[in-house]
Amino acid sequence: MVQTSVVLCTFNGEKYLPAQLESLAQQTSPPSEIIVQDDGSEDGTLAILQSHGSVVLHRNPSRLGFAANFASALTKAQGEFIFLCDQDDIWQKEKIEKFLAHFHQHPEQSLVFSDASLIDETGKSLAYSILHLNRLGESDRLHFPRFVQRNPIPGMAMAFRRSLLAHALPIPPEWEHDYWLLLIAAAEGKIGFLKEPLVRYRQHAAQAIGGARSLQARAAAAASRTLAKYQNESRKFTLLRERLSTFLPVDHPYLQLVAAKEAFLLSRAQYPRFRLWRMGKILSNAASYHQFEAGWSSAIKDLIIPA
Residue 84 in contact with residue 99, Cβ under 8 Å? Predict the structure, then answer.
């Protein structure tokens, strides 16, 4: 049986991909297979991958996008333990070994994540880690309600047992693959944590998701936000609630929690266009802003953005 699968998705990754592949080659516990799914690269990515004999390369006939590419690639992994891998990071050489040791010590856990140190484009270490950046404290690292608020764990810091896919697949196209996997595992109550940073998480302007996207990209994203986006966000949590209901009791508090966030998001999508009228609706949702968002800062944003 295949023990470990690394699932690596690529798109125009020639700049940083060689360092990531080298870090996989140096693992003290080498992966049994490296599944690579390329999403239509137009640079030298394919040549790099084709020269790396240990990868199983798949090419998409048309672009899927970052999350959908991972969701598709996961179905090709055969390992008992599956590791998500981005094209631009660097793994510590003991990463797979330490994750596997933790899994064997905790057979009840279906998903484990570690901390990750941040590096800049050149590989220079930055002065904080992903858990520090996302303000994820000791008391709430493993709790489903904390994860319903937002996703603090990037996929490259995760690994999970193949058994998790029984509930997680298929991943709805509306969802980010890593956030979905985290929520399903947390709802099962089977999450583990390694305090040691086992990935060097590269921050750069061209990354698909992360803290160092260009100011122009962040400004464009902010300018495109409207209250109408919450309609789609509410739909995502409808899909999550429907999936959780396939393995949780109908009266489970997690189902009630997800339904509450679903309703909160839908109410925000329906706020009045005129901001003076909108203010009263926002104030009536004050408790939900503190439970599901970043408190008053999120409420102020909802007051400012257009309908």
Answer: no
